[in-house]
Write a structure and sequence with these properties.
Blueprint: H1 2-27, H2 60-95, H3 98-113, H4 116-127, H5 131-158, H6 161-168, H7 173-209, H8 221-228, H9 240-272
Helix pairs in contact: 1-2, 1-9, 2-3, 2-5, 2-7, 2-9, 3-5, 4-5, 5-7, 7-8, 7-9, 8-9
Length: about 270
């Protein structure tokens, strides 16, 4: 009980903090995140600039707030697209004739054999740079994860007695999937969705770090890390804030996913007692 409470509460607090600073940037930032002030470049933390300024004199706190919004919105968009496509593909694979399902899953296996970052790099190189191409690249990387999960659960659920009984009474496959097969999978899908957001943020930040994601002058946590690496020894305060915020966001979603999984597992144990 204590373990899942700690994971859930700690993850929820970190995620709430991330959303708070992200949505605050929609209405307020201390400075314009894109405004340059060459005369005040490399300023240390002070009352005027709480986290200092970067090599262009831009306020680091303002850019972190704006970059958090980009990271969260891009991750949510990509995971929603990737999860929806993966769920549909997993359902089709499980309900199709065996040879079609096997063929689709071999394609999924081929995608899973490639490193996620490599798939994203190839797609971004084809479609171009920016938020939407990077979100689509991350979404494509999420498809095999959800497809394989749903395919496995669907094969297990198809053998349940209540499914066979419903089919014997003439229940159609569409109604069966929506009302009888998807609901039991909800807990695992929610857990996977939450954990995948952290992975998506990390992947998007990696693309931005390599210069293939969000483009200047827009702010991105990965791009901020990339820009600060040349000055990390002389001006460490440039890299530390964005790195710490990125770590907190990813850790928060991972802890929240673990906490949600433990909560559902605890409820299942109580139900069986």
């Amino acid at each position: 009980m204590r373990k899942y409470r700690f994971s859930f509460i700690a993850g929820l607090l970190l995620v709430a903090f991330a959303f708070a600073i992200a949505f605050t940037s929609l209405v307020f930032t201390p400075y314009d995140p894109e405004a340059m002030d060459i005369h005040n470049r490399f300023q240390g933390p002070s009352s005027a600039h709480l986290l200092g300024t970067d090599h262009f004199g831009r306020d680091i706190l303002s850019r972190i707030m704006s970059g958090s919004l980009v990271a969260l919105s891009g991750a949510l968009l990509s995971v929603m697209i990737g999860s929806l496509a993966g769920i549909v593909l997993g359902i089709v694979s499980a309900l199709s004739p065996k040879w079609i399902g096997s063929l689709l899953q071999r394609v999924i296996d081929a995608l899973m054999a490639f490193p996620t970052i490599l798939i994203a790099l190839v797609l971004v190189a084809i479609t171009g740079k920016g938020l939407l191409p990077s979100a689509l690249a991350v979404a494509l990387a999420m498809v095999p994860v959800f497809s394989r999960l749903v395919y496995t659960m669907m094969l297990e659920t198809k053998e349940k007695l209540y499914v066979k009984a419903a089919m014997s009474y003439g229940c159609g496959w569409l109604r069966m999937v929506i009302f009888h097969m998807i609901p039991p999978m909800a807990s695992r899908l929610v857990t996977q969705f939450t954990s995948s957001i952290g992975s998506a943020i990390l992947l998007e930040s990696s693309l931005s770090f390599l210069g293939l994601g969000i483009q200047p002058p827009s702010s991105s946590l990965g791009m901020m890390l990339s820009e600060a690496r040349s000055y990390v020894l002389t001006y460490p305060y440039q890299a530390l804030p964005s790195g710490i915020v990125l770590l907190m966001i990813v850790l928060g979603f991972n802890l929240l996913g673990d906490g949600i999984s433990d909560v559902f597992a605890g409820r299942r144990r109580i139900r069986h007692v």
